[in-house]
Amino acid sequence: MFVEGGWKPAWEPPPREPRLTKGQERVILWLIVVNVLLLFVAPIGGATIIHAILAMLGRG
Known about the structure:
Elements: H1 22-41, H2 46-57
């Protein structure tokens, strides 16, 4: 009923090569990081965050 090893389909597709180069992967990673940072910063507004940081440092 079960065959161990040895049997393969008559036709196998060729192995797939990676679609992205290392440089392209790095660019996509940086774009994702920037978008995640902007996701948190943009709704609040840049000036508000700068004022909050200055207030926490005691210079505000």
